[in-house]
Amino acid sequence: MILKVKEFCEAEQKNQGVLIPLNNVRKRVAAITGVSEKTITRITKEGITAASTSKKIVTPGKSRPHPKKFDLDGFDLCAIRQKIHSFYVVHKELPTLAKLRAALREDINFQGNITTLHRILNRIEAFESITAEDWTAQCTHVEHLEEEYLKNDGLMDEEMDRIIISTASDTETESDSVSIHSSDSDVPMAADHNYSIKL
Q1: DSSP state of 129
Q2: What is the secondary structure of 73-86 as a DSSP string?
Q3: Would you say 82 and 74 are in contact if contact means Cβ atoms under 8 Å apart?
């Protein structure tokens, strides 16, 4: 934006006068800053509203790069768990997040911040709270649901077979090929066509 203002001032200097009349403030500000007149009007209205309500003008925040999420394998998770246990057993102290992070940087080259470490610890605790019995019960429940689904799928086929109505037979009977004679016409018409659709 500063370059836009500088370019506009240099253009006026070359012209040795104003490029846009001084009484057209909005158009001048738009040309100087490089934004549209509509944006200038909107910001002006927001400024008036903010001044009357003692609030700040809301500006869009900067988009900052976010750190990548860490995908730790089983080895790293086990190393974190072991390091926590060593604080209790070897050092005989409670591990703080800062101490644990420093130790993990040395051992497994952990690059995450304290918040990331806290999230990882919560994830480890969530998995540790699941017992083998809970896991077996959940797997059994899913297998039961699959069996019910497959059993009900066969019922659906049976219901569909009941609903489908056949409108014609495989063989023609004598009643299908009846000659129709009109008393008004000398031309005989045969009704030997089967126009029904078999589904």
Answers
A1: T
A2: -HHHHHHHHHHHHH
A3: no
Where is 180: in which H helix or E strand? Answer: strand 178-180
Distance CA 80, CA 65 (A): 27
Question: Are 31 and 19 contacting, i.e. CB atoms less than 8 angstroms apart?
Answer: yes
Take residue 98 and report the two structure tokens written for it. Answer: 């800062």
The CA distance from 84 to 99, in Å, is 10
What CA–CA distances, in Å, run from 124 to 101, 106, 118, 195?
15, 20, 10, 70
Predicted confidence (pLDDT) per residue in 58-92, tens digit: 676 777 776 666 677 888 888 888 888 888 777 77
Give the per-residue pLDDT at 33.
86
Torsion region of 145: left, alpha or beta (phi above 0 gives left; psi -120 to 50 gives alpha): alpha
- Quote the tokens at residue 108: 């497994």
Enumerate the H helices of the chain as residue ranges.
Answer: 2-15, 25-33, 37-53, 74-89, 97-108, 114-128, 132-163
At residue 102, the pLDDT reads 92
Q: How far apart are CA 30 and CA 3, in angstroms?
A: 14
Helix (H, G, I), strand (E, B) or coil at 176: helix
Q: What does the pLDDT read at residue 186?
A: 52
Would you call 176 exposed, middle or buried from its count of C-beta atoms within 10 A (0-12, 13-18, 19+)?
middle
Structure token digits, residue 148: 């019910």
Domain parsing of the chain, residue ranges: 2-53, 74-128
